[in-house]
Design brief:
- The structure is a homodimer of 187-residue chains.
- By secondary structure, chain A is an all-alpha fold.
- Chain A contains 9 helices and no strands.
- The first copy, chain A, folds into 2 domains: 45 residues, Arc Repressor Mutant, subunit A (Orthogonal Bundle), CATH 1.10.10.60; 140 residues, Tetracycline Repressor, domain 2 (Orthogonal Bundle), CATH 1.10.357.10.
- The longest helix of chain A has 27 residues.
- At the A-B interface, helix 1, helix 6, helix 7, helix 8 and helix 9 of A face helix 1, helix 6, helix 7, helix 8 and helix 9 of B.
- Chain A binds a DNA duplex (30 and 30 nucleotides) through helix 3.
Chain lengths: 187, 187
DNA sequence: AAATTAATATACAGAACGGTATATATTATA
DNA sequence: TATAATATATACCGTTCTGTATATTAATTT
């Protein structure tokens, strides 16, 4: 609703990715966003709450974008899962790409009791389930197994791209995905 | 050489993995290691130097262990690359496994100018080159391409295991790796 | 035994951290 | 225009951070 809250979320998202979450102080966030700490703490109860909201919004935006893309091209289940990595490639190669929140957050908050880690883990699981649904709609037998493998390629490729921008890892992830999907369809 | 330096390295390695790098202060490290800051700063010029040494030693230890395993089982190139993920699985499933340093470090230090990020990136590249050498020794045509794909599976599976211990991701990464290797050998 | 090295305890400097108190200014609503 | 909500500026609190200064104790070497 509030334009300032959105600005803070947007700024925090960017800074968390470019400087790291723990390395980004709230003072820096409000300075870059052009507001004050009082305003930040009016919208977010704590820095942890802000991190959680940033993660939620990031994943929400990506999932929405991906769904649009998948439904725009073809409604056929086989096409959709085959084109999954085409869309992922477009997304990763776009200049706006800065990384995947739940991958970075789980590394910075390794304790499984930590709420941030738990949300990251949940988002990773939900994305895997999303792929699994695509796979089972395409009548693939071991849909969960294939989904897990594709998610490994996804997370590995994103990791590689976060490590070195322009690594070209997605291109090879896509090729590998095609081989695995073709194999799973035949079986 | 010094037993205290080793103890500090060992303690830091453990704490960095279980609590995160930025979230672990030097005070905590020396307290757990049973020494003092003065001693730590006698062996390591700064916290950054300590992090760099921890990363180097971790990767060194893993590479040494992996080499031993690969050479112990079979000297045939085809067997070696096929058994790569068997050894990785054993390593990941061992109780001592706490994660891969360069994956976590690159997430906590995303800036490509940062020395810690640069070392992480270098280690990731070196591991990929190691797999590529295995592949080319097995007379695989696109050795670099396969190596990149296998490294994505590796990093993805490790990421998954860091996120949720006992995820079983490695089992499926191994299956995927076999499919990709078999396909690359035939080509 | 004397001298050098290694390790300790402790205390502190200076900065950055998350979060709050207070008081003022701006905006929108009634 | 009066009232209420929203946003601001600024200063501060207590804690934690990396790194150092100082002085003392233990171990090793000559």
């Amino acid at each position: 609703m509030s334009i300032l809250k959105d600005k803070i979320l947007e700024t925090a998202t960017d800074l968390f990715h470019t400087r790291g979450i723990n390395s980004t102080g709230v003072d820096t966030i409000v300075a870059v966003a052009g507001t004050t700490k009082m305003t930040l703490y009016k919208y977010f109860g704590s820095k942890e709450d802000l991190i959680l909201e940033v993660l939620q919004k990031s994943q929400q935006d990506f999932q929405f974008w991906l769904n649009e893309k998948l439904n725009a091209n073809s409604k056929k289940p086989n096409d959709k899962i085959q084109q999954l990595f085409d869309h992922v490639e477009e997304w990763v190669n776009s200049p706006a790409f800065i990384g995947v929140g739940f991958i970075k957050a789980s590394a910075e908050f390794p304790n499984e009791e930590n709420p941030i880690h738990q949300l990251s883990s949940q988002q990773s699981r939900e994305f895997r389930q999303f792929i699994s649904k695509l796979a089972s709609e395409a009548s693939i037998k071991d849909a969960d197994g294939l989904a897990l493998q594709l998610s490994l390629l996804f997370e590995g490729a994103v990791q590689a791209e976060q490590m070195k921008r322009g690594s070209g890892a997605i291109k090879y992830a896509k090729k590998a995905a095609k081989i695995l999907i073709d194999g799973a369809i035949k079986a």
